[in-house]
Write a structure and sequence with these properties.
Layout: E1 4-5, E2 32-35, H1 39-43, H2 45-53, E3 63-67, H3 73-81, E4 86-91, E5 97-102, E6 105-110, H4 115-123, E7 129-132, H5 153-160, H6 168-182, E8 188-191, H7 198-213, H8 215-224, E9 230-233, H9 241-251, E10 253-254, E11 259-261, E12 266-270, E13 286-288, H10 292-316, H11 321-326, H12 328-342, H13 354-366, H14 374-378, H15 381-388, H16 390-399, H17 404-419, H18 435-443, H19 456-459, H20 466-481, H21 485-493, H22 496-501
Helix pairs in contact: 4-6, 6-7, 7-8, 10-12, 10-15, 10-17, 17-18, 17-20
The protein binds D-mannonic acid (CS2).
Amino acid sequence: MDLIQLNQQSIHSLEPQLGIPKYDRKSIKTGIIHVGVGGFHRSHQAYYMHQLLCDSDNSDWGICGIGLRAGDQKIAQVLKEQDGLYTLITQHPNGKEGYEVIGSIVDFIFAFETPQIAIDKMAHPDTKIVSLTITEGGYNFNPNTGDFDFENPEIQQELKNHNQPKTVFGYLTAALRKRKAKGTPAFTILSCDNIQHNGDVARKMLLSFAQKQDPTLADWIANEVCFPNSMVDRITPVTPKSAIEFLQNKYSIKDAWPIVCEPYIQWVIEDRFSNGRPPLEKLGVQFVPDVTPYEKMKIRLLNAGHSTLGIPGAVHGHATINACMEDKIIARFMREFMDQEVTPILDEVQGINLTEYKNNLEDRFSNPNIKDGVSRICSESSAKLPKFLIPTLLENLETGGSIKYATFILSVWGYYSAKEVDNKANEIEILDARKEELHHAASGFEKDSISFLRISDIFGDLLEKERFVKLYLKMSEALFNDSDIHKQIKLIFEDNYTLDLN
Ligand code: CS2
């Protein structure tokens, strides 16, 4: 059978089992510009907007994606060939699957090649919101001090050349400068990254940059642009080849980049917008005055929970998060970490029973049809752990709480960075912008046992916390002698280490 190339023209000839956009995509305005159209954006925000667009009252809220980086070329090409359309495949734990063609991304600009078009689009009066999924690293802060990193050569270039932006900061200031000059109201900047106080961080970073580049503009941004904090959630693994093949074999559709995700979805946003917002509450999105307790709960339990499975799981030789959950010892390790180290430092979250939330996380991580790669979870740990895990450790050091689970993760991370192979001598796929530096520092363990902890912008002043350093050294020594993860975790359950220390 001939394959049907997924695009606007072919959409009506697709199988009836497949949901297709029930709105006239040509009449949609792009009220949202999104920077960072990755898998997560396509399973989460673009899915919400797709649902919203089914109601013709909301036709101002289509999305125009923007790709700033050279690496965005592939998505630019795919979305161009497919007129922004792609299939969202929802995988339920019981094997049920949902297929829906998402139509909310009605335009895409590969800004890396055409920066001025992107600036003009952001500056257009139709643009009401610029949303971001640029990853933890994209905010360009020093993870230890939280200050903007002016050393970054791209930032230095942008500071001099206002009209040749490279990073999101150059684009946002260029577009906002234009809006200010023309008297167009400011847009909202809506961060959708897994960073606590993501809106506040976006604001602080943009204002630091703008202040250096153009102080009058910085004042205008400070007064006119809202940066709501938000908590986002939907597990979205890297698209497996099998998903592409499945669509071809079962539905005869040629979709070069479908997205696979879990059924669970959540979005909690502070209701502070500069220039209007879509009525997302109709879809169950929660608008709250303060998102802090929600984001802290999610980042410290879900995201850190992922790392507490993935890092030991990688060394043990597991490929997926569901395999880590099937491993009773690693799964129990994660739950103990959540119960003993995270739960005590969380504030009460209105309407949420934490035990149920954690049970639900276990179910989500166990979903056998998501097959979330351990390599995705461990990717960019150098940016993730300072946000997801180390703050929990610091809070417990402060209050005298348990630190053994979080400390063990940092020890295993050091071991993993030094050896780069699992216990079966297979190479571990490590995706981290700082891989070399991590490897170099961690490999020094035998000569200088705290060499890894000396990466100060990751570990901050942990090196000065005696209780932590003693435990880290014992755990690391044990691991470097015998990297049997199960054996080492059992020692922790038996309280071997802490008894020793007191
Ligand atoms: C994961 C997240 O990459 C990670 O560290 O924990 O991508 C996670 O899957 C999402 O935040 C789920 O909402």
